[in-house]
Amino acid sequence: xxxxxxxxxxxxxxxxxxxxxxxxxxxxxxxxxxxxxxxxxxxxxxxxxxxxxxxxxxxxxxxxxxxxxxxxxxxxxxxxxxxxxxxxxxxxxxxxxxxxxxxxxxxxxxxxxxxxxxxxxxxxxxxxxxxxxxxxxxxxxxxxxxxxxxxxxxxxxxxxxxxxxxxxxxxxxxxxxxxxxxxxxxxxxxxxxxxxxxxxxxxxxxxxxxxxxxxxxxxxxxxxxxxxxxxxxxxxxxxxxxxxxxxxxxxxxxxxxxxxxxxxxxxxxxxxxxxxxxxxxxxxxxxxxxxxxxxxxxxxxxxxxxxxxxxxxxxxxxxxxxxxxxxxxxxxxxxxxxxxxxxxxxxxxxxxxxxxxxxxxxxxxxxxxxxxxxxxxxxxxxxxxxxxxxxxxxxxxxxxxxxxxxxxxxxxxxxxxxxxxxxxxxxxxx
Length: 430
Known about the structure:
Layout: E1 3-6, H1 21-30, E2 35-40, H2 43-57, E3 64-65, H3 70-75, H4 79-92, E4 97-102, H5 104-109, H6 113-119, E5 124-127, H7 136-151, E6 159-166, H8 173-184, E7 189-192, H9 218-222, E8 227-233, H10 238-247, E9 252-256, H11 261-276, H12 283-304, E10 307-311, H13 314-326, E11 330-336, E12 350-353, H14 356-361, E13 368-371, H15 376-382, E14 385-388, H16 406-429
Parallel strand pairs: 1-12, 2-3, 2-4, 4-5, 6-7, 6-8, 8-9, 10-11, 10-13, 11-12, 13-14
């Protein structure tokens, strides 16, 4: 574990990697089937978010805006804008849920979204997600907590087969699916909240939907209170897990900082073995563990010679750094977006809460960058190796099917890093 340098006193972000809380809330609501995210914001804020995710997933993104202006926010508040927006949504579609969340403009004014939501004659969940604090990860976490608090029905008994997975925001749709598949492999019944594995997984639907298509159903969310086991992945999901356990004190909760690499996956499997009473996992799970072990050996020479910079949200950062560490990699610099309990656990020499300006200043300390699309220009300018991870990734297609988690994804991730490192090293020598 390395030194944590907190740069939150910096007066501005220069070449930021950070995305906003409302962007995290948007993704969380898109993980609910038939949901219409309603951003209480100026029209441009919603448009920017829609463009970001449309380009990242190469899919149409369902999202609406209250289209407030600075004058309207100050003089009238948000009541009229929200209620009219809900009416307009109802004229076109019938969502199973409206997800109402805020941005900096109405938060600065102090709009009472809870009070306004109580007056709306539609199923609605509200959450305060000002974009002048936090980031993508915290916006997702706050929204998941609000969904649980406002929708899940309190229970006293548990269904021994039922498992709730609370994934952090940077788990791509296929990774959430792999977690569900792993749980199901032990004879248990998994539910993910939020669940992008069937909504933004890149499947070809029959027609374009004006609301979210796929994800966990609202009816299923309401009944999560009888789950016997809650598995939270990422420290940003701890408050959501606590909110769910409040609904039923007989639930059992296990937390995982991440599910990347051999050690973390072993811990995840161990919990499922106890919960299911199965002494030995399926043969394909054992086989993938052996493949990951072999991948660690095969990639060790390339990864062990490479100094890494990882730029990511805290939960994502912890998983990437652990996977590299297990294969002998050295993360000399880790740059993240916000402070988190994860940072003290990150396997890196130096952990910085900052931006890509900090990455540029520390250019002599690393050879290879792992980060989002905004790192591409930096890598080219500094002649560094690059593997794209996180939001947004506009350079590649198929982001939703990129798997770095559990045994299988861990092997793929190490192979990709080793191959890119070798290509970079060959170009440097030539």
